[in-house]
Amino acid sequence: MKAPAYALGLSGLVPFIALGLAAWVAPVTSLTAVVVIQAQYAAAILAFLGALYWGAALVQPEGQVQRPWLLLGWGVVLPLWAWRMTWASSWVYGMSGLFIGLAVAYAADVMLRKQLPWPSWFLQLRLWLTLGALFGLGLTLVRLYTFKPAG
């Protein structure tokens, strides 16, 4: 299970990093499209991370889930946060919110690890995936913060 999870997880970083680089090399007229595509992908990943909490809670025997409202509730908060960030008042705010959402999702994984039936190697994988995603979003955020339209 570990090898496929690492291979597929790391391949999921390609859109984050490729779009982060594209924000710097694409024509200015394409910047909005790059940002929208990356924001949608980040939102999808946050929703996926929320689903992990539902899966973790549902595979445990009935009555043995510690704090089910917390686990299931957190699984709903992540996609709602992601969805809200896709229609923020500006792309800088939205991308910043998605960046924060991914970082907070990892922090929650660390804090709740004792309640989750995940394998021992999973948090290490989540760390690498989170860092890669934040790097890609960070590239785009720096581009957005430094972009000066002509005129």
UniProtKB/TrEMBL annotation:
UniProt key word Hydrolase = no
> Which sequence ranges are marked TM in the entry?
32-56, 68-85, 91-113, 125-145
Q: Which residues form the signal peptide?
A: none
Name one matching Pfam family.
DUF3429
- Record keyword NAD present: no
**Sorted alphabetically, which keywords does the UniProt record give?**
Membrane, Transmembrane, Transmembrane helix
Q: Report the domain of life of the source organism.
A: Bacteria
Identification of the protein by name: DUF3429 domain-containing protein
Which species?
Answer: Thiomonas bhubaneswarensis
